[in-house]
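Good morning C.,

I know you're traveling, so I'll keep this short. The sequence:
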Amino acid sequence: MNALPATAQVVIVGAGPAGLTAGIALADAGADVVLLDRLAEGANTSRAAVVHARTLEVLEEFGVTAELRERGIVVPNFVLWDGDRALARLDFSDLPTDYPYTLMIGQETTEALLLARLEKAGGQVHRPYEVTAVTRDAAGATVEYRDGAGETGSIRADYVIGADGMHSRVREAAGIGFTGSTYAESFVLADVHMAWPDPRTQVSLHLSPEGVTVVAPLPDEAGTRYRVVATVAEAPEHPDLGDVQSILDARRPGAGVKVQEVLWSSRFRVHHRVADAYRAGRLFLAGDAAHVHSPAGGQGMNTGIQDAALLGTLLGRVLNGEPATLLDGYEKTRRPVALGVVAFTDRITRMATLRARPARTVRNLLISNVTRVPAVRNAIAFRLSELANK
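The tokens, ready to paste straight into the viewer:
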């Protein structure tokens, strides 16, 4: 562990993708920034594996996108299924961006590249430091922490960014509510090696009475590695090969899917919530501390990175002498985006999990008909890519 300073201009709590991005923006601005994370090491599993076009545009400004592109797999197509029937096909290749695709890359790789870029800018992540309290006043905030050896200390900061996830200590200290609720279903998340019938240039979203299932390719020399995300009534704690195989057999019948190996797996419950405010004085929220939602569309990490890039840039400008009123633009810009993402992913999730046959029949007919119109297909792709968030 590295010794921590007694003071800093900015303390960032949480060194996931959002915290690292904010750190890069601030380090580039010459700010005195300290990043704390309670974990002894960064992500070592793929978890959030989708990077959308708008995020690639944002990260291009930090010089990260080219290497992400080199390490990931380009996926320009999105196909919506009900059982063995393809309802709609979306093509991202006509999007108005230099990145007309979805990039599939594991979160552990994304974090490693962001960390390397942070260190290149002169920053670093201090681990493991658990923030135990944050006390704010008009001039700044005091961040109390406990290190891995149980020793305690504190840092005085001008500003604090909470990028510390859904159970944010910073949000709690700020007294900011987290409005929303929890989905009844649980989610299976797994990376597997398998024989899958679709080309590795597409993400497949499957609708079924049992739940929504997303299958997407992940970088792999053998070309057999895939991400599987599926809603189930009650997921096992550690889904195994048989669990994943039965999900795919039920939701893509007749496809000849053969799961060969589960590389890692997890279960989780999903909330759809947005912080009532993104700021309390000199405390700010970004990423999952500010918003959480269904993984449908793969937009969580992307929205968080975009939050952090804007917040870090604005804060860097203020620390370099520009008016503090610039910071008012953060919540005004980013909270409406989060509200839109939460509503959008909630609609996808509820639409995908319709159980009654008449409702499913109407849904499928509607999807098939409206997506025959090129303008509709392009509009959906534009929304999924988060280019609408500019």
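Safe travels,
E.
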